[in-house]
Amino acid sequence: MILTHEGITQPVEEWALDYGIPSETIRKRIGRGWPVAEAIEIPVLTHGRPSQRYRFDGRSLTVAEWAKLSGLSAFTLRSRLRLGWTIGRAVTERPQLTGKGPRKSGGGYQATSAVSIEDRRPRHAQDCA
User: Fold this and answer.
1) How many domains does the chain divide into?
2) Shared-domain flag, residues 38 and 56
3) Residue 12 falls within a domain, yes or no?
4) Alpha carbon 50 to chain centroid distance?
């Protein structure tokens, strides 16, 4: 499907990339009679409302997009924004290790008691060894 908007004609896939909307969503909107401008410009709703965009460093992105770009989790960014941080500070400041709470080590949980693997074997397995 080829669409023309503001004097530019290009395939739906290109409009999808330009506006960050899935091409299938644009096709469905056009099929339902939406004007081309609205079909490609109106953001996809998430949880009943458009995703909020944050402008920083010449870009306007959602929290999920900023998270992917910065290497931080979306949870961390949302938490920082709720605390009143600017988007610039939220995406550029590296997390501080506070020493609070449990930590993971090497992809697994650290042991909480001094139990050896031998102690965890079923009793009959120890008798056979």
Assistant:
1) 2
2) no
3) yes
4) 15
Residues pairing with 116 in the sheet: none
Interval 19-39: pLDDT, tens:
888 889 999 999 999 899 888
Containing domain of residue 90, as a range?
51-95
Structure tokens belonging to residue 116: 């050896």
Is the pLDDT at 106 greater than 50, yes or no? no
128 is a domain residue: no
d(CA 19, CA 33): 19
| Residue 126 domain flag | no
Question: Which pTM does this prediction carry?
Answer: 0.42
Going by C-alpha positions, the residue among 79, 85, 17, 83 that lies closest to residue 56 is 85
Separation between Cα atoms, residue 103 and residue 106, nearest integer Å: 10
Per-residue pLDDT reduced to its tens digit, 49-72: 667 888 998 888 888 889 888 988
Report if residue 106 sits inside a domain: no
Q: How far is CA 13 from CA 1, 9, 40, 108, in A?
A: 9, 12, 11, 42
- The single-letter DSSP state of residue 97 is P
Tokens for 74?
């979306």
